[in-house]
Amino acid sequence: MSRTIALLQGDSTVGDLHGNATRLEALAELAAIHGATLGLSTELAICGYPPRDLLLQPDFVVKAQSKASALSVSIPILVGAPLAPDHPKQLPSNGVVRCGPLASKQPNGNRIVARKQLLPTYDVFDEARYFKPDNRPGIARTIAGLDLGVTVCEDAWQAADMTPSTYAADPIESLAEWGRQGVKLDATVNLSASPYHSDKLASRIHVCRTAASILNHPFLMANQVGGNDDLLFDGNSLVAWPDGTVVIAPAWKEGVLMVHLDDPNACEWLPSTASDALDVGDDQLRRLQPDDDGREHEREVLHDLTDAVVTGLTDYCRKSGIKSIVLGLSGGIDSAVAACVAAAAVGPENVTGIAMPSRHSSQHSIDDAAHTATSLGLKFDTIPIDSMHASVEGSIGGMLEQGAQVAGENLQARLRGLIVMAHANAQGSMAIATGNKSELAQGYCTLYGDMAGGYTPLGDLYKMQVYGLADVFNLRAEQQGLTAPVNASTRTKPPSAELAPDQIDEDSLPPYPVLDAILRAHIEGGLDGESIAEQGHDPAMVLDVLTRLERNEHKRWQMSPAPRVSSRAFGQGWRRPLASRHDWRRS
């Protein structure tokens, strides 16, 4: 008998029960045609992850569970779904439902094969708010001739010591204990929605290898792909054998990983046939030998980050019904790269770039903006703002004379935001903001000005990473015989907001390589000022950077969503107080 399990690496849309069911049925049919005897979806695949407060609506949970149970598929499928509680005042479960042949003849309770045990509440997770934990891992008996252990995402991570705190239970160890007591399993599966950040795959490989070693049988993880709000999911579904052999599905692709339990070399990847499947990354299946940690085979980090931010904007637009994008094109590196991301996400014909020169704009910035738009094939418009700027100054000039210099400078940014938003409203498009993480961290951005927009595609990229993405987009264009969209002038000129004569960013900020290193050490490394200074940074500079970070939290609370690509991004995983008297100078 064939022992082939299909990992259905799907791109679910949160709340779209019918659409998600249709995608799952199509992936299951693709798997069945190619000889799979059993399919495995990702975590909460029927409703999309994370559904957040939709789970507080009892009718949503009931409908989701019912839709999962009723999938029309020709092979048995284990589907991730919320499960209704036994009593109205209880929370639902994050569970797994069996559907397909034979399942329809069983009572509803017999279709439920597992409920998630470990509910993470750290970083971007808040699952204890929504779910009741179970007290035992699941087992699916005699499904397509296989006996399987069944776990859900976090359930697998404690055994590998990859959780920030210790849970009271360990589902992998529990399954291993059952095995020692004579419960023989062919494999253990894991339905996962593991969010992406740039070094996450190595962690998952370690988790799966650890589980396979402990259980002494193959461990399979089906992981969600695509973007939902600010969270990204890279796919990379994988299977590990007890000897350490690993097979990994492609990143940023929807499709099916066909796992042949008895022969790692026979595994294959089947791309999705959905017309809206993500068009980034490649279809390369990867195989790691027991002594290979996978790092040498990692795609270059910047290529992965590029695909990540493109995926984030692509799915945000598709799942929100957004067809076109508007952005300001200043001739600077951030707007040029944001334009590249937008063109890749929705097609260049659906992107409008607007140059809005002021009295302080250099001619090379105007020319550079035009180069980017022309190279990408965007719609392009130039709207000088000097007359509007002069008119506003004439009306409130007395006020500006009494105020800080920044008030006059910000007029230009807000006039540009006004124009971009007017274009977006008139065209039924979405404006995007072009700021990066370094600037957002330091408040080097203008509320209701350059921060205006429905999405910030570069919002979790440090400034120097933005330059790296520019190189990737240029390389990809040249490989297709096209003109590089980010020209040398944009690439090499000193960064400047051009809001005052001869202004450059380093007038008020450290050089970006230094700034990025300080910010990364604090935000993602968790280091305090003294520890960062011990790494060789000037203590006064570190203090200034951390003070500006603290004083500008109000801006980050008002920024539009940005795709999470780092281990700690501004957003759900960053919960600093808004009104705070914390002072780094007195700490």
Structure description:
The protein has a seven-stranded mixed sheet. A seven-stranded mixed sheet has the order 6-7-8-9-12-13-16, with helices on one face. Helix 7 packs across helix 12 and helix 9 (386-402) runs antiparallel to helix 10. The longest helix is centred in the last third of the chain and has 23 residues, at 405-427. The radius of gyration is 26 Å and the shape is elongated. The protein has 17 helices and 20 strands. The protein folds into two domains: 4-299, 4-Layer Sandwich (Nitrilase/N-carbamoyl-D-aminoacid amidohydrolase), CATH 3.60.110.10; 307-506, Rossmann fold (3-Layer(aba) Sandwich), CATH 3.40.50.620. With 587 residues, the protein is of the alpha/beta class.
**What's the CATH topology name of the largest domain?**
Nitrilase/N-carbamoyl-D-aminoacid amidohydrolase
Going by CATH, the architecture of the largest domain would be 4-Layer Sandwich
Task: Find the CATH superfamily of the largest domain.
Answer: Carbon-nitrogen hydrolase
Number of helices: 17
Structural class by SSE content: alpha/beta
Look at the structure and give the mean pLDDT: 91
The major pleated sheet works out as: 7 strands, mixed
Descriptive tags:
seven-stranded mixed β-sheet; 2 domains; single chain; 17 helices; Rossmann fold; alpha/beta; Nitrilase/N-carbamoyl-D-aminoacid amidohydrolase; 587 residues; elongated
Walk me through the topology.
Blueprint: E1 4-9, H1 17-33, E2 38-40, H2 58-69, E3 77-83, E4 93-99, H3 108-111, E5 112-115, E6 138-143, E7 146-152, H4 171-180, E8 187-192, H5 200-215, E9 219-223, E10 225-228, E11 231-234, E12 238-240, E13 246-248, E14 255-260, E15 268-271, E16 286-288, H6 301-320, E17 325-328, H7 333-346, E18 351-355, H8 363-376, E19 379-382, H9 386-402, H10 405-427, E20 430-431, H11 437-442, H12 463-479, H13 488-492, H14 512-523, H15 529-533, H16 539-551, H17 553-557
Parallel strand pairs: 1-2, 2-3, 7-8, 8-9, 17-18, 17-20, 18-19
Antiparallel strand pairs: 1-14, 3-4, 4-5, 6-7, 9-12, 10-11, 12-13, 13-16, 14-15
